[in-house]
Amino acid sequence: MSKIVLFTANVQGGILQFTLQIYKTLMEEGHKPIIYLPFEIKDCDISKIPSKNIVQFHKTKRVINQRPYWLIAKKIVSLHPDYVWYMDESVICANIGIFLPSSIRQLYTAHDAGTHHLTNKLSLRNMVLQQYTRAMNMFFYKKIYKFILLSEQSIITFKKSHSQFSKKIELLPLGAHLPDVESTIPVELESQINQPYILFFGRIDKYKGIANLLKAYSNVSQKALHLIIAGNGEFTKDEQKAISRCNNLTVIKRYIKDGEMRWLIENSTAVVLPYIEATQSGVIPLAYFLGKPVIVSNIPGLTQFVINKKTGFICDDDQDLEKALITMNVEQAKIMEPSIVLYYKQYLDWNRNIRKIWDKL
Q1: How far apart are CA 64 and CA 333, in angstroms?
Q2: Is 160 helix (H, G, I), strand (E, B) or coil?
Q3: Whole-angstrom Cα distance, residue 349 to residue 345?
Q4: Residue 360: helix, strand or coil by DSSP?
Q5: CA distances from 181 to 12, 54, 171, 258 (A)
Q6: Residue pLDDT tens, the chain, 361 long
Q7: Using alpha carbons only, what angle is made at residue 34 by residues 28 and 37, rounded to the nearest 5 degrees?
Q8: CA quadruple 290, 296, 301, 307: dihedral positive or negative?
């Protein structure tokens, strides 16, 4: 069995839960994983993990002074791992990876397949960081032993930009990385706890297609279930106007804690993903794991995980989305639940898929 350093530079959100899930699965499969993560993590309980299996560092971003990255790389080498598996696409991973010797095999999880999503807010700093990351990755990618892609669509997208690494790609279908925390109802919902609802969960941004969702829901809100939009980010002016036209809508615009996220999905009737682009989504396996159907737009990054009218509804246009919002009710969700549970077991089970990919490694 292998000794594996799971490295992340993220301090909050889904990547941390992804890291903990990979750690848990590798432990169950008999490997020896060690999590390497920042001291600055938020809303993430690591108290149940033995201290010998955790190494923390202070997160700093440097361009000229590479010494902090060299020191981290030196510490990783002292652990004598067989693999270093990067959990995120941070430029910090690249800065560390270039210092590691070839005797340590480096695995790289490309969540967004090397692309950048459409966004409502792209600062000058982020634009410069993107260019710097691309430049660093030109050197870093050459040292990667295997690129771990989380969906078939990710592989297609990644190959378009990085065809020279096609033979280094392995598929690990994205399962549910559900936080090991108690469900906590958001305070905004305490007065409507027994009301069935359709949920949009995640960061509020342009590529999520919230404008399309609001447009469709404003036309059918009197006939459809309650809609909850929960996530951090900024609405556009058009989205703000659309919100004002919707009845039966609750917006929770802030960072959603892990316990709240769990409650929101567990108690939903269905989850809606009206995205306009995606290579995959961590929301779908979370919904399936909890037996919830999904409503998705017809883009390959989402439809590759959906059996239309069995595990959810695939929507070609605004009219389809309106119909799905009306059709999806408690009874319909219960009809779909057996197909959803079966799909998760067959395609998204972590132990099965980790075992399969490790046999290839």
Answers
A1: 54
A2: helix
A3: 5
A4: helix
A5: 15, 19, 29, 7
A6: 899 999 999 998 889 999 999 999 999 999 999 999 999 998 888 888 999 999 999 987 666 788 999 999 999 999 999 999 999 988 899 999 999 999 999 999 988 765 554 555 556 666 666 776 777 778 889 999 999 999 999 999 999 989 999 999 999 999 998 888 889 999 999 887 678 999 999 999 888 999 999 999 999 999 999 999 999 999 999 899 999 888 889 999 999 998 999 999 999 999 999 999 988 899 999 999 999 999 999 999 999 999 999 999 999 999 999 999 999 999 999 999 999 999 999 999 999 999 999 998 8
A7: 125
A8: positive
Of the CA atoms within 13 Å of residue 75, those in its CB half-sphere come to: 17
| Contact (CB, 8 A) for 294 and 306 | yes
DSSP for 340-359, written as a single string: HHHHIIIII-HHHHHHHHHH
pTM passes above 0.70: yes
Amino acid letter, residue 336? M
**What are the structure tokens assigned to 3, written together?**
């000794």
CA distance 118 to 348: 27
**Distance between CA atoms of residues 294 and 333, nearest Å:** 9
Cα separation of the two ends of the chain: 11
- Token reading at 208: 């999520």
Query: How far apart are alpha carbons 74 and 72 in whole angstroms?
Result: 5
